[in-house]
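User: Teach me something about this protein's shape.
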Amino acid sequence: KRFQRMVPATLPGASFTDTALTAGYLRRLGYGDEKAAQLAGAKALGSPVMDFKEIVTELVGRHVMRVPFENFDLCADPSKFHEAIMCRIANPREIVRRLAFGVGGGTCFDLSPAFAWLLTQLGAKARLVMACDATADGYSSTANRLVVIADNPGQGSLLTDVCAPEPCRTAVDLSGESSDALATYDVVSSGEAEPAGFVSLLRRRRAAGSIPFSFETTVCAPEQGEAPKEEELAAWTPVYAFCPEQDLASGADEIKTALAAISNPASTLAKQRLFSLAMPNGFVVLTDAVMRQVSDGNTVHEEAVSDADAWTSCLDKILSQLYEDPPMDAVFYSKRGGGRDRSPDGTPIHNFRRSEANITASEQMQKAYQSQEGASQRSKHLGSTEASSLAVGGAGAGGGLGLNKPGFGPKVHHFSGSGQRCRTINISDDIPNAWAQIMDDQDPIGWMLCEYQDDGKTLDLKSKGGGGLASFKASLGDAIAWGGFRCYAVDRRGGVDCKRIKLVFVQYRPDSAPAMKKAKQSSHKGDVKDVLTGAHLDITVENPGELDEQELITKMQDATGAHKPNGYEFEAGVFLEADFYGTGIGKECKNENSKN
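Assistant: First, the predicted structure itself:
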């Protein structure tokens, strides 16, 4: 039962878009709602101007302090672990849902595919890579660790590992040194002792105030509770060997082999339960024998685990501390300052706390939870009645235990709301006037384009004009913009042409635009669509070439009902065929003739 509580019985998010699920994952990592939404839509890791390593390091640091390394699934039933993991790796969204809406973590075979998915959604190229742990005698006999390499064409590649019992808290450059609060890392050649194909070695040099991770009930004597000595701090120790060129598919033989090895009940990882979580200056670990918390080079708490109840109690303590008192981010944001009660982006730290109400990825899900709670409170006395409530009055006066009484029950609001809400941007009066011209097929104005003022708070009409799609595309520049144009759906049957106006709403976010501006633009869409109403098609493009006539025809046909036109006009008098049903066009149309 303790295993089951780590993942909800019913996971939300199956129908979420990738962007919404990304926001849910980012909330699990401690971002507030607004920041998570901005990052999910910005694709910042694909930008050549953003600091790639800084962003990835931030994600790694948050991940290792909020998503634990744990092997509960493996220990619960090693025989089913292999198959279950292979199914999840084949669909990383399922792993992400487990992490976004649960409180558990997993082994590297869960966490690395999920983190690779997240990096991809944020704009990076992410590759799965196998690694062999370093041992006292060399390396493990088979590859046993799955890590992630993130690539940015203009800024190089980074090694990321969010799932080790003692993880790197930083993204590691494949050349040169990288440091976190507790150690320095670098990547070198693994040398002659390398396992076949694993040509690179990650090694670590501990900083002062760093105690090595240990499964034992006490830190080995005579150094119990002490940080490494100075001569030990200066020494580089191997962590694992890996192949930086790998890009493993979900069903790769290397992954299957590694899973088979750790799924063996005799393997070290399958022999006892392990829960490990990084802390700002240390770690907390729970095994079947001990719970230990290390911080600032000292073992600040340690207690023996004597039985199942003691183990459960220890796990509850860790989870309670994690989700009621989330880790400080000062270690990773020391340059930005700030106190204990606020996050790096200014969001109050209590917003990062996870409860049953805020465990989900969206405001809508929170409202659903609150609605369920309200219904539960209203219904808790059903079944217990007072005599005065029985058989009093007719149905309209409250008979039937008062259930028919006018006004009984919660007040219901229409799903579309009141129609009034505060705008997040100012919109020039010229914009709705221009859109009204486009909606009028007797008006020569056929397109319009709106751009932001320098302060980003006001949207102005930049241009409008006659003509069609070609003129609209020519008006697009390097700035983020909103706009739309008029075209026509045409039924050409026999000798008759029947035209119907079609309006296309366009969100333009060019490749060259800053990532944060793109994220802010998305939050304004509701306000803009309140003004540019009645569009038949809503599209987002990053360059004018995406406004291709055939692509637009396909989308327009998908958006129509059962009656589909057999052509479109994006320029006056230029008919493009779209014979969806194959019945012919014009005089060739079946069951039609020139006399129609």
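Now, about its shape. The mean pLDDT is 78. The CA atoms of residues 130 and 254 lie 7 Å apart. If you'd like, I can walk through any region in more detail.
User: That's plenty for now, thanks!
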